[in-house]
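pls read this protein:
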Amino acid sequence: MLAKRIIPCLDIKDGQTVKGTNFVNLRQAGDPVELGRAYSMQGADELVYLDITASHEGRKTFTDLVKRVAETINIPFTVGGGIYELKDVDRLLSAGADKVSINSAALRRPELIDEIARNFGSQVCVIAVDAKETDGIWKCYLNGGRIETEKELMSWSKEAQDRGAGEILFTSMDHDGVKTGYANKALAELAGLLSIPVIASGGAGTMEHFRDAFTEGKADAALAASVFHFGEIKIPELKSYLCSQGISIR
């Protein structure tokens, strides 16, 4: 069994780390570079930085932030937000990012996945899927969870894989920030369908939730934000706990 990964996620707005519940009610969580440095030293396997209000004006600010992060940490990190074309990918990779995460742009123009995989390699391309379950069907959402699409979680994730995505980052919008556990049933179904890694996102509140994401949800990695940002769970203690549960951890 491949070792599981623990991934803190930092949502960035106006150059600061923020965290909300169900994608709204944002509160400040600290300096993104300093938080990244702390997580790197604590034993995080990777980091994800998301420019959650990515707009044309914010791009330069975010690129500068990516450069500062790259100079500070020594673990891989993924960046997302405001990536619409190959030159955006090139700009962020050149600034020091290891991977890019795309969501809305891929839903609007799926060919972008093929282009990124062809030009930079599948390992660079993480497809983020924000989905909500309605009447038993997981619908995918655009624009940071604001717009529902006709795309369905399973079929869209499979298409993304077939087009060259290297990983799927699945966030359950209903579980986001409420700390009641990940969407393990949907995660397990995704893991069974795909041959690429699945990253669980949305719902971490206790160490047991991480365990369940790996055992019940069959996830390859678990991503969380507020439990790390606000010190509710410490990464070394989490890894020690997961080891004690027989889970292979990096």
Remarks:
- The radius of gyration is 16 Å.
